[in-house]
Each structure stands twice: as structure tokens, then as C-alpha cells.
Amino acid sequence: MDQSESDAQAPKVVTGKSARRTATHMDIGNIVAMLLPLPLGILWLGASMLVYAMHKHHPNPKVGEYTQWAAYRLYGVVGAVVPIATFFPGKGITHWLVCWAVAALIVIPWSLWSLAKIRRDTWEDVLVPT
Questions:
Q1: What is the per-residue pLDDT across 16-34, written as a single tens digit (0 to 9) for each?
Q2: Dihedral angle sign, alpha carbons of residues 25, 27, 30, 31
Q3: Do strands 12-14 and 126-128 pair parallel, antiparallel, or not at all (unpaired)?
Q4: Collapsing DSSP states into helix, strand and coil, what is residue 123?
Q5: pLDDT of residue 2
């Protein structure tokens, strides 16, 4: 067996530092989307599905868990807007601004708490078989 074959057989290492950084992506995206609601909020809603799909099955299961909880927060709050906004009267923007402010007051502190929790958590290297 030559060197290239043995390298192909060796497991890959996902470092704890990399896993911790990956776990923060969804929460950071949620915070930025809440701070800049249009058009970034709408774009993040679509992009967050891609981030969720990529991170949910990360080799380190903690990444998937933190990503899943960040998604619950975002989709729960944004999903509540649909039935609530059904009853907004007229064409005014005031109701939308109040709705956005309430959503931001829910998502931003909760995401900051999650980021602090991710930072305090213990992250170990994970071996991924090739």
C-alpha cells in the first residue's frame, strides 16, 4: 500500500473549534435577519433552510442540536406572524413594525443566550471515517 492509499483510509478530524463555530451560524443569521428585516429577513428565511439542512447532520451531534433549536425559534416566531398578520387592518405599516419589534425582542435575546451557551459548552474533536 502506498502513501496515497493510506491517506485515503485515514479518518478525517472535525475539530471542536470548527464544530463550535458551525453551531453559531444559525443563531448569528437569526440575529442579523431580525436587525435588518427587509429584504434580509426574507432572504434569511430561505437561506436558513439550507443552513439547517447542512448543519443538522454534522458529524458532531451538538451542532445539529443547537441548529435545530435556533430553527425552532426562528420558524416559530416567523410562523406566528402569518395568522397574526391576517388580522392587520388597512395598508398601514405600524402593525408590521410592531410585529417585527416583538419578533426581534423574542429572537435576539434568545439567540444571544444560545450563543453564550455554545461558547461555554465543551467541544471535542470528532473522527469522521472516510
A1: 999 999 999 999 999 999 9
A2: negative
A3: antiparallel
A4: coil
A5: 56
pLDDT tens digits for range 72-85: 999 999 999 889 98
Distance CA 65, CA 58 (A): 10
Main-chain dihedrals φ then ψ at residue 125, nearest 5 degrees: -65, 145
Q: Tell me the backbone φ, ψ of residue 127, rounded to 5 degrees.
A: -90, 130
**CA gap 47, 41 in Å, rounded:** 10
Largest CA distance in the chain: 74
Grid coordinates in use for 115? 450563543
Closest CA to 114 of 1, 8, 26: 26
The continuous run of DSSP H or E covering 98 comes out as helix 94-120
Residues 6+ apart with CB under 8 A from 32: 40, 44
3-state DSSP call for residue 110? helix
Residue ranges of the chain with per-residue pLDDT less than 70: 1-8
